[in-house]
Design a protein that fits this description.
15% of the residues lie in helices and 22% in strands. The chain is an alpha+beta fold. A 3-stranded mixed β-sheet has the order 1-2-3.
Length: 99
């Protein structure tokens, strides 16, 4: 399996959310597919066909109960982003957005 050309940043905070949930291409995007894999959640699409332009994936490390650490992956910027507010929620009605 080849690597996708992601630019990866690091953040100690986790107050911002992945922009993909409000993007027209969320179910077809290879970057979001990778984020889903990191979250361990079911994919919206098993075979995404859009290679996003310059997605910026931020990785946040969080303190969890019991002294453990958690890792959060979020796309915070992407030149392919096309606003479609609530797109993820319409694709998965009644489900909670992965965190």
């Amino acid at each position: 399996m080849g690597f996708l050309p992601f630019k990866i940043g690091f953040s100690a905070g986790w107050e911002d959310m992945c922009i993909c949930v409000d993007c027209r291409w969320v179910d077809r995007c290879k970057a979001y597919h990778a984020v889903e894999r990191q979250h361990g959640v079911a994919h919206l699409n098993e075979s995404p066909d859009i290679e996003p332009i310059e997605p910026r994936i931020f990785i946040s490390v969080m303190d969890m109960p019991g002294g453990e650490s958690g890792v959060e992956w979020d796309v915070r910027a992407c030149r392919s982003f096309l606003a479609d507010h609530g797109r993820w929620m319409r694709l998965r009605p009644g489900e909670e957005i992965p965190k």
